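Internal ticket - ligand job 365, adenosine-5'-diphosphate:
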Amino acid sequence: MKTLCLGIETSCDDTSLCLLEHENGTSSILSFKTFSQETILREWGGVVPEIASRNHLEKLLPLLKQVFEDAQRSIDELKLISVTTHPGLLGPLLTGLNMAKTLALFTKASIVPANHLMAHLEAIGLTQGYNSYPYLGVLVSGGHTLFAKVTGPLEMEILGTTLDDAAGEAFDKGGKLLGLGYPAGRIIDLLAGYGNKEAISFPIGLKDKKTANLSYSGVKTQLRNYLEKNPELILTPDQRDLILKDPSVASQEFKDVCASYQHAIVNAIILKLKMAFELNDLKELPIVVGGGVACNRYLRIRLKENFKNVSVVEPKYCTDNGAMIAHYGCLLQELAIPFPKCLGLDARDRIISKRGEKENQLVLN
Ligand code: ADP
Ligand code: MG
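stdout (structure tokens):
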């Protein structure tokens, strides 16, 4: 039987809704709308939770109207709502959850409180039409960077994680130092395409350590030091605006810095992913890559060059989006919290699979 599901994502700075139909593990997207706060937040140099929450509140209802109109479906048909409840910024999460609960009140639909990290990886089902297990999940986003053995939609064992910044954070913080503004991953990706990645040697954190954990604080410090010696490279707001419109106009030296910095971030992922395989004797486990940084063109190339069986989530489902939340919710629909119990949900609740108290296992709560 087909399930009509609405996915709601408001954990950070993207307001994203998706209406899809799901049957036997396969999702067909009916409509999908995202409002990104990127330009609004650039002014503030990053995510301000209070401002992000206000923007979600403003955008949620118009987007809701639009997705139902585009899909030519009625709210009365809704049986399942999947909403991000963890992890994320509390205020933004509450805006999405409150909309989910209000809709449930009108439609008596059930709610899946969805874990955002698993949803990023399970979004591979939107790209390839099905989800299969086990796989080695590589989650690279603005808030997280981790390697995990995934054996089911609720089963994730963490094999390695960043000890400080996430990969996306390394891109964004580096971009800030360079004067590129927030967020910077996409523009560094574009600029790096014109640059020489060997021009500057940036370090790889924990390079010689037998661990699958990563660290990005060193590369960021090295960039800061480099820019202190070469301050003329830091962009003025006018130069930045020109470069955001057309990256090719940046100086060659600037493009080289971007290429070298990106090279170091990507190298760390490749090296530590190899280490995760080696240390856990994972042999030829398929790799699934998701999260915003999975959009990075150079990372995608390097993954394919270095590993045999790699599937990367399509770019449109990589950065935060309601489609991955809806799809993931459908995979867990048997565990959905029915009406009216779902009205008691809070923005930290999520469906769990308790597999013991071991520290390296993500226990969804
Ligand atoms: P989060 O869930 O942590 O909010 P997302 O999954 O939405 O993060 O991803 C956003 C992150 O992805 C940002 O840090 C952004 O800079 C990064 N990003 C987006 N596109 C690219 C790209 N092409 N190359 C590198 N990083 C990228
Ligand atoms: Mg995300």
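Auto-summary: Confidence is low (pLDDT under 50) at residues 357-365. The longest strand covers residues 26-36.
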